[in-house]
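=== Per-residue structure ===
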Amino acid sequence: MPFHHDDAIIRIKNLRLRTYIGIKEEEVNNKQDIVINAVIHYPAENARNSNNIDDALNYRTITKSIIQYVENERFALLEKLTQDVLNITCQHPWVTYAEVEIDKLHALRYADSVSMTLSCRKE
């Protein structure tokens, strides 16, 4: 398994945003719906027995950073968008593992979405 057995696991589920993603003319000119799912592992020894926010990894701060970045950038490739969001989720020094999946809705005629998943592991 890609995590320590005592890590806390934060899951950000179905974060729905709009951004410029793609290379076709209509994609460059119009924002599209994407859905972001992220998994973040960190050792939560301090937070388990505390009520102090400073002892926990603040998922609200991470999510705000993702929203601000994604909504104000343009992306040709789903891979680049996914990697950039992964970089945001991994940047806190406490994070031991993170995984990001991004769905580009209605990317294919007969499919709900196409998604890309990338992960990072820190020792």
